[in-house]
Specification:
The chain is α/β, with parallel strands linked by helices. The chain is built from eight helices and ten strands. The chain has one domain: Vaccinia Virus protein VP39 (Rossmann fold). The strands form two sheets. It has a seven-stranded mixed β-sheet with strand order 6-5-4-7-8-10-9, sandwiched between helices. It has a three-stranded antiparallel β-sheet with strand order 1-2-3, with no helix packed on it. Helix 5 runs parallel beside helix 6.
Length: 262
Amino acid sequence: MAPAQPGDFLSLQFVQPFVRNDGAAKSLHFTLGELQSRMLTRMPWRLEVDYTRTMMGFLLFRPAPVHICMIGLGGGSLAKFCYRQLPASKMTVLEINPYVIALRREFQIPDDDERFTVVAADGALYLQNAQGENPDFDVLLVDGFDQEGQPPALCSQRFYDDCFAALAEGGVLAVNLHYDHPDYPVLADRISRSFGGNAVEVLAEEKSNAIVFASKGQAISPRNMSLPHSLAGLDQAARMQLKGELVRIAWEMKNLDQHGLA
C-alpha cells in the first residue's frame, strides 16, 4: 500500500497548530484552551502529560512488541518515548495533518530510519486499506485529535473493527478518549463490541482522559500481567517514571476484576 504524500491533504484545509515556549517547555496547541502535547526542553523524551503515561500501560500486556502503530503524531511524546525505550520495536506513526508533521524537528522527533517512520496518512483509511493483508501490529495506539476533538472517522464502529483486524493475535489496542465528553460511553462500548468484550477502561490520573485497552485474543486481565516483565526493557529513568502508573493501572484492573467488571 503506497503511503499518501503531505501534499495530498493540503486541499482539506487543515488547521495549523501553534507552539508555546516558556523556556522550560514547549507545548502544541490548536486552541489556547486545549493542550495537545507538552515537552520539557531539557528532557524531550519524558512523558509530561498524564494520559500518555497511562497509554504506556500496554506494556503490562505486550512488554516487547515487534511492531507498534500509532495514529496521531501530535508533539511526538509517545513516539519519542517508545523509540528510545523500546529499541527492538519497529514503529509506524500515521498523521493526517501536514502542519503537525512539519513541527517534528521543533519537538525533537527522530528522523525516519529502519525502525521508525512517520507516514502522512489518514489513519482510518490506512487501516481500511490494510484489510486482506496479514495482521502486522502488536500494539496500536490511537491518539488522534484535531481542533474539534476526536474526528468521527477515528471513533466509528467500522474504525474499531478495522483496529481489531489490523492487530496480530494477542495484539493490544490503547485508545485515548475524553472522559467527560458526552459520547464517551458510546465510544467505549464500540471498542468493547469490536473486541468481543475483551476491553477495560482506565482513567488517567487527572481524570479528564480515559484510556481503553482491548486485546485480540489474550484476555485483558490482571492475571496476564507482570510488572517486572513490563519494566524490564526500560532504562532507569523510564522505570522510575512509569512504575507508579503501571502499578496504579494494575491495581485498578484487579479491583475491577474482583467486582466482575474486567
